[in-house]
Amino acid sequence: MRSLLGDHLLQRLQQDTEGKLHQRLFRCLRAAIIDGVVQPMTRLPASRDLASEIHVSRNTVLTAYEQLQAEGYLEARTGHGTWVAEKLPESFLNTKNKKKAPELTKVQSSYVLSQRGSNLLGYAAASPHQWGAFVPGAPDVTEFPHHIFSRIQARLSREPDVNRLIYSNAGGCIELRSALADYLRVARSVQCDADQIIITEGIHQAIDLVSRALSDIGDHIWIEDPAYWGMRNTLRINGVHIQPMPVDVEGIIPEQQPKQPPKLIFVTPSHQYPLGSHLSLDRRRQLIQIARQHNSWIVEDDYDSEFRFSGQPYPSLQGLENNAPVLYMGTFSKTIYPSLRIGYLVVPKPLFSPLRIVAAELYRGGHLLEQKALAEFIREGHYEAHIRRMRLLYGKRRDYLVSLIQRYLGSEFIHEYDEAAGLHLVLKLPDHCDDVAIAATALERGVKVRPLSQYYMQSHAHAQRGLLMGFACVNEKDMVMAFGVLLQCLREAKVPTLN
Ligand SMILES: Cc1ncc(COP(=O)(O)O)c(C=O)c1O
């Protein structure tokens, strides 16, 4: 069998045809070392093996190795073979021979990305490492019963079923769709059957699918203001016209007589993201009526409704009326872990077949083994048990964070729309505060909070100031330390504190 280096050298030797074979091999190997194809401190194949891989005599390889050794690129270690030197010869690297990759012309570099691609870069907001105090929306992934889930996965992998190893164009694993239909009917009052559910790679993909399949470039789409930046960015790149709608304690305030009726209305009715209120019954009815009147679709993002720490959970908007014009999105990112990348979209019956086909054309569909494992995990009762356990844990962590805020800052710092729910809360700051600068200083000191003002689309002057603080993936001990750091940042920014 040929090594990767063997393959590489064979290709290079075909291009370098000048001189004797050992000189050509010397040049090709030296270029491979300089270009980093073989890294410093890597062992090279034995001369006999390399000779047979690239069909030259062993002497040819030995001569090339010796010359590279003499020039300082290789080292022979007695009894341990030939290695690339740790430091490459400076003299060679400084010569004019060093090849430079051709530079992109000005025109090429200004067109590397499309207009919408480069716009999106300007709005990119995903944190590089979404873990620790106080990353909003991150669950405690270490608490998941990995041993149970991996046991189910291992069993399924031992009996591989062809149907789980090929592309899916059925909207995902039927067992998962069916387990979800049962769960959603009971836990979220969603009116649905398995044949209305499309499994997606999280809510992000569901937003992409819905906006591409149900709206055209330039169509008007309502979103809440403030809203989840990930939703805004997905809509942005799809070229729709995003119309931000203000939010109050009852949730989105819809325009009663819109001049440009929306094609889609994205909302977070159970737990407005990021402020934390829920959509009142009155507004729910208004929204459904507006959607019916203008043939719009409401898209319900039910990202974290499993976590409500007091009172009853609010039922879904989708289930409020029969045949409501609502598509419902959910995710396992908060209840299991984000990198699982499994979510779901519940659609009205007539939309199932077309959306399933669009999904298959756009994304192909896969991860059926994980989906089947998840179905069993739910059916065996582990999912509900895990949610119950996490609800208790996150509830305690939330109480602890609230107590720190009350003690060191005062209750008025907890946003007035806040309800005891979800995986984050909003620390409200006085209007004059620069929440972006405070979050940046905190981040430099290892504390991750996100500035509330950046969740708004409307002009910054109108945006409320505050910090989103996730409490789910940080234990009490780490929380105190991180809170101390944040408090210091707030003091330096002249935010009045109590102690
Ligand atoms: C409001 C909201 N919707 C959707 C998502 C993303 O969900 P997913 O991981 O399923 O794409 C998030 C993630 O934080 C969120 O906050």
From TrEMBL:
Provide the GO MF annotations for this entry: DNA binding; DNA-binding transcription factor activity; pyridoxal phosphate binding
InterPro entries on file: Aminotransferase_I/II_large, HTH_trans_reg/aminotransferase, PyrdxlP-dep_Trfase, PyrdxlP-dep_Trfase_major, Tscrpt_reg_HTH_GntR, WH-like_DNA-bd_sf, WH_DNA-bd_sf
One Pfam family this chain carries?
A: Aminotran_1_2
For whether the record's keyword set contains DNA-binding, the answer is yes
Q: Has the keyword Magnesium been applied to this entry?
A: no
For the HTH gntR-type domain, which residue ranges apply? 19-87
The record ties this protein, via SMART domains, to:
HTH_GNTR (SM00345)
Q: Which UniProt keywords apply?
A: DNA-binding, Pyridoxal phosphate, Transcription, Transcription regulation
Q: Would you identify the family this protein belongs to, as annotated?
A: In the C-terminal section; belongs to the class-I pyridoxal-phosphate-dependent aminotransferase family.
**Which PANTHER family does UniProt cross-reference here?**
HTH-TYPE TRANSCRIPTIONAL REGULATORY PROTEIN GABR
Q: What is this protein called?
A: HTH gntR-type domain-containing protein
Source organism per entry reads Acinetobacter beijerinckii CIP 110307
